[in-house]
Fold this sequence. Notes:
- 38% of the residues lie in helices and 20% in strands.
- The chain has two helices and three strands, in the order E-H-E-H-E.
- It is elongated, with a radius of gyration of 11 Å.
Amino acid sequence: xxxxxxxxxxxxxxxxxxxxxxxxxxxxxxxxxxxxxxxxxxxxxxxxxxxxxxxxxxxxx
Length: 61
């Protein structure tokens, strides 16, 4: 995907804790758009707040 002008979008399941949350952070550091999915709303919101920035937005599912 190097050199591509298309934005990257990933969806991470289990994003509220553990490996899923670490994966969200790693993609966020690269500027990737992220959709986050998890069963627990509290952990999911916390994960989203960790990586949220003005653009691009993440979304909760």
